Each structure stands twice: as C-alpha cells, then as structure tokens.
C-alpha cells in the first residue's frame, strides 16, 4: 500500500541525508504535492487524493505480442503493431525537463524508473489503448515518443476502464517533435464511474519548423486533469483543440503552458466546454512569449456552454508577453443554449432532447469536424452520443 | 379546423391579446391585417407555443383538443407550421440534416417509414427546383448567412416537405423582391388542396395579389375587430385602420 504524502515525506528525509542530490527529487520537493496554494492546481483541489491509500503494482517488462495497436494494461505494454518499436528504457534524468511547472510530472518520473519508448519510423499512424482494470491502485508510467525528422506521424489515444474506481492513473508523454516533421495526436477519452482519477502530465518540444496538432476529446463524470508544457522553437507550430463534455459532480479539465521560444512560432489553442449536472470545468492556460520569440502569432480561446444550474467553469486564458513584435489574441465566453434556436428546431417537430443535441453537436463540431481521420471521427462521435444520452436519459427528457 | 376562443396572452408584463376569438376553416385562406403592435405576431406565436407568450385565459381547439398547454414540437407534429418572420440562424447545424431530422420526426409520428439520406435527397431536389433554390443551400448551416429571400424560401421549403395542415405565414412577404415573392407565392399555392388552412399575416396587399384569400380579419387592440371578404383590403389600403371599431 502507498500514500503519496508518505512518499513525499520519505523522499524529503532521504534527500536531506543524501550525498549526491538528484535534481529530479529536488525539483519535486521544491514544488511539493499539489495543494490549494499550488499555482498549477489552484482550481483543481486534489488534496484528498494524496492522502488516499493505494495498492501498488510491480512492473515487469514482458515479451510483446503483435496486434493492431499498442496496448498498455495497468501500466504494462502487452502488444504493439509491426513497424513500430516499443521498448522500456531507464529514465534518463538529462531528458527530464526541469523547467516543467507540474510537480506530478516529476513525481511520475520518480515513480517510473523505466519509461516506455515508442519509436515511430517514417510516416505512420499508431493507436495507443490504455486499459485500466485495477481498483484502488496507483498506476503510473511515462511514455517517450520518438519521431523522425521530416516525417509525419499520427497517434490516436484511447482508453478502456473496467472496475478501476478509486484508482489513480498518473501518466504522461515526453515528446520531441523533430525538425521539419509533423505530429498529430488525438485523445479520445470517455471515463465514468468505472474509471480512475486520471492525471496526465505531458512535456512536449516542437523543434524548428515542426508542427504539432493536438486534439483532446474528454467525456465523462470521473475526475481527470491533463497538463501540458509545450515549447515552440523557431517557425514551430502548435494547433490545440480541446473538447470537454462533463456531467455529474466532477471537476475536470486542462492546465497548459505553451512557451514560444523561437522566432516566428505560431500557436492556436481553442477549448470548447459543455457542462451538465453540477460539473466543474477547468481551462487554465498560459501562453508565454519569450524575448527570443519575435514575430510570434498566437490565438487562445475558450467557449463554454453551461447546461446545468449547478455547473461552473473556470476559464482562464492568459498571455504572458515579453516582446512587442507579435500578433496575439485571447478570449473566453460562457453561455447557455440559445432559446430561440431551440424553439426554432422544436417548432419543426424535433423533440427538445434532439433539438438540444443538434445545438450541442453544432457547438462541438467545430472541433470534432476537424479530425482528418474519419474512423477516429466516428469513434469520437460515438463517445459524444454516449455522453449526451447518459445525461439526458437521467434527466427524463426523453 | 382551429378555433380560438377568448384568448388572452401576455408577453412579459404586456397584455397583448385581450379576448381574441377566431375560427380558421379547413381549406380556407385567412388573412390577418392590423396596425403595428396590434398582436398579430403574438397570435401566431400563441398558436405554435412560443416560449415568449404566456396564455392566461381562453382556448385554442385543434383536432378536438385544447393545445394551449401542448409543447411546440407536439403542435408541429400534429400539423401546425409557422413560417417565421425572421428565421433564426443556427451555425453548425447542417440545413439538410435539420430538414431530414424534421421530416423523419413527422413521418415517425405518422407511423410511416423514415427516409434514408438518398431517398431524402431525391425528395429535396424536386422541391428545391420548384422554389428555384440552389442545391448548395442544403450543405450550408441552417439559415446562416442566408439573404432575406433565401431565408423565406427555406421556410417555404420546410412547409413543402413537412406538409402541415395549418400553415401560419408571419410576414412572409417582408424583404422579398418580386421574383422571390412570386416563387414563395407559388410554393404556397401549390399547397392548397381544399383541406389545408392558411393564416397569412401581412401589412401589404402585394402578396395577396398572388393568393386567393377567403377572409380578411382585422386585428386591433388584441382582438379581431372586423372580418370580411377580400374587398376589405382595398378599403384598408385607402383608409388605414382608424375607422375600425369593435363590431
């Protein structure tokens, strides 16, 4: 059994007497487990999680089978497709970004002595399925994605949960999008009562003239946070789209920091949030433009529809700018479904539930409609339908 | 077909309809005229169940029951249709998908088989052509960026495919050029089958030149104050509404 607060205390004691000090441990201890005063987690109070007792698992690398996807079950890689290299390697402290703002990024690395390395050769598409089947368990792993210069890769991330309640999934990606390459990353996550709390803390570097498209589709009533630290080099581009569709009494969302380091780098971040029941959404996003990032272009926007009286959205798009030569804009809107539009549809014989669905789909489609892969779009639409009817059947609108 | 008795209706704190009586006969074209603020649009909204309108007294009997408390979608499925004065724009909702959803809801309500995409498109092509509408109207978002004429034609298109029994046209002629007015009027006339009832709300006679109204009703101060034949239009055009008092 393990409690994360106990682990922190143990690391503290060991660090004080250690002869050679690990920078990773030092960084984690500096930031400490998140609490209400933590900058990154100020809207995502998770104190109770760190006092919870978790079962722990031993991770043993096994021989991998071949399948059509990379399958990771409770933190262990089970299978992989042909043409993709997947292996474990010791976590190299030199490859850890000590400038990351998230203490749980460092904790994830501390807990995971070995990282799962995924090497994508050439132009490829890869599906990654995370399957969690343990209750009250701490499951942790780090994944390193290695792409090639001047190639295009697509990663489609999926999740399956079975009896994984009261567990904590602490994972994340370390990605270096190579020079002149493009990477498309699409996350499709539906997590409900059977799901663990998920904290996904990522560190991404987009090299010169590389391009990253990052789309996340989050549905559910289980708590989850995704945290991004993204650094853009010269002429690098990131296009982030985040759809959050929550219901029930849940707190969930995105915390992100995009750092423009290179000249003429470009970022677009668009969040769409749909909240039902008494759900609380978080969009706490900073775009930082450093002195070295002249001619940056950046846009950041968050739009929210509140569908329940007890819903609440923290939308904090923020710009931190140190230069004059740039184009930057950001904004946030929060509203409800347009009653006139709803009436128009109903006046044509469309039920209130279906009219609501049409309007919500219209709102969400600005992001879902941008998925290039039709199979992935269909899978996300299925999760969207599941999310919509999960809530609307409960409220007896059908 | 539809009988309104002693209808009182408010919008917010304003009492708009104040004991309105009106009977719409099957197969007839009824025209409502009246000064601004008389309650013409409120009447049409009350019939279709618009959320703005609170009916405080009276009844609207249709197909043997009082529909005052019926939700808007149920009134629509039972055959009541209103062409909106200013059709709302709904970005992101594809026009064809909306039309097929509405049509299939109606077919399902009538116990008929729903149309698949191919069957639906076949139906639509014929209707679009009769209204001189381009097929790209189907792939656009519902009413988004439509000109005034395109919006009104899209309303008539919905009327043609949904085949309602009671058709309320709220200032369908406003903002239309002559060609659009003709096309809209032809669409309306093509729906006349001796059974359907039309309630046409207008300020001007130009639309009436293309239709064959049976009754002209003057709505003033929240009541129908006068009902007569089409000859009343000329008098109203010449003399306005001041001379009309409660009969």
Automatic annotation (TrEMBL), chain A:
The record, for Pfam families, names: SUFBD_core (PF01458), SufBD_N (PF19295)
Q: What is one Gene Ontology biological process annotated in the Swiss-Prot or TrEMBL record?
A: iron-sulfur cluster assembly
Domain SUF system FeS cluster assembly SufBD N-terminal per the UniProt entry, residue ranges: 18-56
- Coiled-coil annotated residue ranges, if any: none
**InterPro entries to which the protein is assigned, alphabetical:** Fe-S_cluster_assembly_SufBD (IPR055346), SUF_FeS_clus_asmbl_SufBD_core (IPR000825), SUF_FeS_clus_asmbl_SufBD_sf (IPR037284), SufBD_N (IPR045595)
Query: Where does the SUF system FeS cluster assembly SufBD core domain lie?
Result: 131-363
Protein family = Belongs to the iron-sulfur cluster assembly SufBD family.
User: What PANTHER family does the entry give?
Assistant: PROTEIN ABCI7, CHLOROPLASTIC (PTHR43575)
- This chain's protein is named Iron-sulfur cluster assembly protein SufD
- Source organism per UniProt: uncultured Sulfurovum sp
TrEMBL record, chain B:
PROSITE patterns reported in the protein's UniProt record = ABC_TRANSPORTER_1, ABC_TRANSPORTER_2
> InterPro entries, from UniProt?
AAA+_ATPase, ABC_transporter-like_ATP-bd, ABC_transporter-like_CS, FeS-cluster_ATPase_SufC, P-loop_NTPase
UniProt-listed CDD domains: ABC_FeS_Assembly
Question: Which superkingdom?
Answer: Bacteria
Select a single GO molecular function from the record's annotations and give it.
ATP binding
Cite the entry's keywords alphabetically: ATP-binding, Nucleotide-binding
Ranges of residues in domain ABC transporter? 2-246
**Which NCBIfam families does its entry note?**
sufC
Q: Which family does it belong to?
A: Belongs to the ABC transporter superfamily. Ycf16 family.
Its protein name is: Iron-sulfur cluster assembly ATPase protein SufC
This protein's species is: uncultured Sulfurovum sp
């Amino acid at each position: 059994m393990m409690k994360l607060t106990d682990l922190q205390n143990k690391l503290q004691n060991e660090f004080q007497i250690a002869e050679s000090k690990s920078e990773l441990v030092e960084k984690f201890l500096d930031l400490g487990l998140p609490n209400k005063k933590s900058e990154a987690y100020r809207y995502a109070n998770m104190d109770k999680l760190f006092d919870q007792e978790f079962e722990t698992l031993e991770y043993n690398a096994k021989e991998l089978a071949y399948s059509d996807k990379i399958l990771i079950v409770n933190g262990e890689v089970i299978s992989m497709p042909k043409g993709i290299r997947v292996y474990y390697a010791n976590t190299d402290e030199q490859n850890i970004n000590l400038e990351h703002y998230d203490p749980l990024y460092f904790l994830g690395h501390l807990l995971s002595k070995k990282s799962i390395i995924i090497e994508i050769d050439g132009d490829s598409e890869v599906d990654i399925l995370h399957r969690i089947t343990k209750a009250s368990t701490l499951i942790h792993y780090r994944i390193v994605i290695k792409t090639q210069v001047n190639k295009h890769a697509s990663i489609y991330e999926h999740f399956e949960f079975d009896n994984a309640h009261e567990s904590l999934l602490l994972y994340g990606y370390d990605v270096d999008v190579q020079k002149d390459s493009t990477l498309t990353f699409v996350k499709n996550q539906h997590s409900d009562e059977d799901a663990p709390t998920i904290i996904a803390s990522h560190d991404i570097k987009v090299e010169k003239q590389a391009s990253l498209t990052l789309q996340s589709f989050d549905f559910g009533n289980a708590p989850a946070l995704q945290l991004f630290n993204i650094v853009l080099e010269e002429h690098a581009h990131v296009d982030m789209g985040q759809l959050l569709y929550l219901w029930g009494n849940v707190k969930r969302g995105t915390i992100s920091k995009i750092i423009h380091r290179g000249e003429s780098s470009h970022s677009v971040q668009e969040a769409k949030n749909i909240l039902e029941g008494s759900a609380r959404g978080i969009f706490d996003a900073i775009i930082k433009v450093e002195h070295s990032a002249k001619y940056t272009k950046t846009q950041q926007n968050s739009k929210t529809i509140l569908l329940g009286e007890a819903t609440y959205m923290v939308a904090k798009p923020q710009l931190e700018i140190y230069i004059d030569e740039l184009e930057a804009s950001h904004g946030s809107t929060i509203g409800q479904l347009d009653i006139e539009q709803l009436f128009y549809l109903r006046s044509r014989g469309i039920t209130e539930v279906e009219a609501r669905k049409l309007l919500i789909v219209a709102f969400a489609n600005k992001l879902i409609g941008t998925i290039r892969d039709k199979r992935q779009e269909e899978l996300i639409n299925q999760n969207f339908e599941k999310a919509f009817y999960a809530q609307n059947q409960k409220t007896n609108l059908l | 077909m539809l009988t309104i008795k002693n209808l009182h209706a408010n919008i917010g704190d304003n009492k708009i309809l104040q004991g309105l009586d009106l009977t719409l006969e099957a197969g007839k074209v009824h025209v409502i005229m009246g000064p601004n603020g008389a309650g013409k649009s409120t009447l049409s909204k009350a019939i279709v169940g618009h959320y703005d309108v609170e009916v405080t007294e009276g009844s609207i009997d249709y197909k043997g029951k009082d529909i005052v408390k019926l939700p808007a979608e149920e009134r629509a499925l039972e055959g009541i249709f209103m062409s909106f004065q200013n059709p709302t724009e709904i970005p992101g909702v594809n026009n064809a998908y909306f039309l097929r959803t509405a049509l299939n809801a109606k077919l399902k309500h009538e116990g008929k088989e729903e149309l698949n995409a191919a069957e639906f498109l076949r139906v639509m092509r014929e209707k679009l052509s009769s209204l001189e509408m381009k097929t790209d109207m189907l792939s656009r978002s519902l009413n988004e960026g439509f000109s005034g004429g395109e919006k009104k034609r899209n309303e008539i298109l919905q009327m043609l495919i949904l085949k309602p029994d009671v058709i309320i046209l709220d200032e369908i002629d406003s903002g239309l050029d002559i060609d659009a007015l003709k096309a809209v009027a032809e669409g309306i006339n093509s729906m006349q089958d001796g059974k359907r009832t039309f309630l046409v709300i207008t300020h001007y006679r130009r639309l009436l030149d293309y239709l064959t109204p049976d009754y002209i009703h003057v709505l003033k101060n929240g009541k129908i104050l006068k009902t007569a034949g089409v000859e009343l239009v000329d008098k109203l055009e010449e003399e306005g509404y001041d001379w009309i008092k409660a009969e």
